[in-house]
């Protein structure tokens, strides 16, 4: 359970924002930052974000719903949201667990993700949803 990153305590209701500030989210993080990961899927390898988890009810959009855009690819299950003004990825509804959002750890206010230390890697090339049935290329 990660309750502090660098000098920034993780609040039970912690705000997150995109770069330009058009999008502001409130994240419910009663257990702090949960399960931070990097991922090597075709999307994450390009965007490079560290992603942590919240249940769907754990994100409230305080501002900027109208400027959020959604990107889908491959099976079109996951919904990747980003600010259409500054382009920063904020959060996504997961394909591996649609009851969860992943969110961009670097969007948490006051948090410098480089102070997190070593971050585990998720195997996004061999996606859990592809392991049974036919293998889909990314
Ligand atoms: Zn923005």
From TrEMBL:
One of its GO terms (molecular function) is carbon-sulfur lyase activity. It holds the Pfam family GFA. Keywords: Metal-binding, Zinc. InterPro entries: CENP-V-like, CENP-V/GFA, Mss4-like_sf. Residues 14-130 form the CENP-V/GFA domain. Belongs to the Gfa family. This is Glutathione-dependent formaldehyde-activating protein. It comes from Aeromonas molluscorum 848.
């Amino acid at each position: 359970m990660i309750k502090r990153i660098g000098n920034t305590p993780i609040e039970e209701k912690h705000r997150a924002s995109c770069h330009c500030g058009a999008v502001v989210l409130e994240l419910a993080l009663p257990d702090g930052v949960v399960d931070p990961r990097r991922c090597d899927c075709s999307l994450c390898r390009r965007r490079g974000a560290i992603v942590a988890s919240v249940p769907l009810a754990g994100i409230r959009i305080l501002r900027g719903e109208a400027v959020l855009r959604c990107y889908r690819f491959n099976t079109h299950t996951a919904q990747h949201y980003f600010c259409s003004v500054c382009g920063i990825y904020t959060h996504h509804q997961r394909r591996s667990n649609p009851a969860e959002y992943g969110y961009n750890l670097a969007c948490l206010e006051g948090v410098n993700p480089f102070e997190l230390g070593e971050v585990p890697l998720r195997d996004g090339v061999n996606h859990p949803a592809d392991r049974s049935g036919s293998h889909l290329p990314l």
